[in-house]
């Protein structure tokens, strides 16, 4: 997961990590797919861990791994973070290789062999903070 995060960090064309338009009205020009992204990963713990009081609730979390993934950028494409996290998980679980992930960064496109597996559920993803800088 850490290696995949390091691979995604930096300036890349994230076309492969955006969702394609669905209708004619959505065919307007998208924002630039070239982004500077910083991805941080560390072991986490369940949200609300301090509120788990019963032994049964704590036991449910013992066999699970929790990760905190922090993604920073000036802007994002539609579903970009979800798909980046999905790519990191696919690489971490050996479904795809880091070379596969690098290849879609080097040759951005919307269709590749594991396109349908890249999307990650929004469950568990939270927007923690938005910063605006005054000019």
From TrEMBL:
Signal peptide: none annotated. Pfam families: PseudoU_synth_1. Residues 4-132 form the Pseudouridine synthase I TruA alpha/beta domain. One of its GO terms (biological process) is tRNA pseudouridine synthesis. It comes from the Eukaryota. Gene3D superfamilies: Pseudouridine synthase I, catalytic domain, C-terminal subdomain. Transmembrane segments: none annotated. It catalyses: uridine(38/39/40) in tRNA = pseudouridine(38/39/40) in tRNA. Keywords: Isomerase, tRNA processing. Its EC number is 5.4.99.12. InterPro entries: PsdUridine_synth_cat_dom_sf (IPR020103), PsdUridine_synth_TruA (IPR001406), PsdUridine_synth_TruA_a/b_dom (IPR020097), PsdUridine_synth_TruA_C (IPR020095). One of its GO terms (molecular function) is tRNA pseudouridine(38-40) synthase activity. Belongs to the tRNA pseudouridine synthase TruA family. This is tRNA pseudouridine synthase.
């Amino acid at each position: 997961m850490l290696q995949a995060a390091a691979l995604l960090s930096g300036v890349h064309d994230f076309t492969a990590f955006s969702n394609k338009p669905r209708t004619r009205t959505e065919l307007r020009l998208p924002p630039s797919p070239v982004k500077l992204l910083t991805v941080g990963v560390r072991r986490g713990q369940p949200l609300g861990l301090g509120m788990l009081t019963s032994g049964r609730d704590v036991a449910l979390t013992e066999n699970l791994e929790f990760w905190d993934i922090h993604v920073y950028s000036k802007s994002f494409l539609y579903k970009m973070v979800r798909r980046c996290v999905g790519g990191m998980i696919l690489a971490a679980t050996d479904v795809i290789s880091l070379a596969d992930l690098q290849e879609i960064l080097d040759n951005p496109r919307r269709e590749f062999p594991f396109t349908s597996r890249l999307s990650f559920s929004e469950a568990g993803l939270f927007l923690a903070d938005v910063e605006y800088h005054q000019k």
